[in-house]
Prior knowledge:
Blueprint: E1 8-16, E2 25-32, E3 37-41, H1 48-55, E4 64-72, E5 75-76, H2 82-88, E6 93-96, H3 100-103, H4 110-120, H5 126-139, H6 145-148, H7 158-170, E7 176-180, H8 188-205, E8 208-213, H9 216-222, E9 225-230, E10 233-239, H10 240-245, H11 250-257
Parallel strand pairs: 3-8, 3-9, 6-7, 7-8
Antiparallel strand pairs: 1-2, 1-4, 4-5, 9-10
Amino acid sequence: MTTAPPLLQIEHLTIAFPGPAAPVVDDVSLSVAPGETLGVVGESGSGKSLTALSVVGLLPTAARLTTGRICFQGRELTGLPERELRAVRGAGIGVIFQEPMTALDPVMRVGDQIAEALEVHGRLGGRAARERAVELLRAVRIPDPERRSRDFPHQLSGGMRQRVMIAIALACRPPLVIADEPTTALDVTVQAQVLDLLRELRHDYGLSLLLITHDFGVIAETADRVVVMHHGRVVEEGPVRRVLRAPADPYTRQLLAAVPGRAGRPAGGL
């Protein structure tokens, strides 16, 4: 049986800021298969978000990719001009950001922001794009989507704003979606709803998902495989079930011990 090539392949990625400090991402390699959810977990400063943002060329201005290759659908993205990367963002790789109030345009109606994603990539325009925006709001379970499409971001709850971000990420039906801490700013009930939605949309849209989080509980509920990062390096990776039951690295065990309700339970009891 032949194995499908990875949808996304990152090889020996190193990212540094100016100065003598150690790289913030150090020799990281990972891959995402078609239809797979790969979780990348680690505490703040572990390099997980920078790794994800490097894929779509959205690193902070001062950050520099010093070594490594990033390939998407067999095409190398490393060093692509910004114009070509913009064509990949949205159409090939959707991005769900951690804080939608920062990512969304505060003076633009949310339906227009979804329609804009379709228009920029030449998928739909005019009335057809606006109608598709309403359909996407319905798909991400926003009630009364026709009315809500005319709202501005500040008129929506945090959970609804995150759903709008998901709708924008899915607008062009990209094969890969990067979700960077998509539930961090939400309360526990809304977190669970958003995770359920991501699982459902992954199935309905045939997505691959690169899920960035500091929460092993999210990984346990959502991912097929997990990469654990610490101080910019990968310290453990493997199928989620195996890592949960028999974590090999002390840092992984530390993260698992921090999951509410897990302390004192045997491995695999998450």
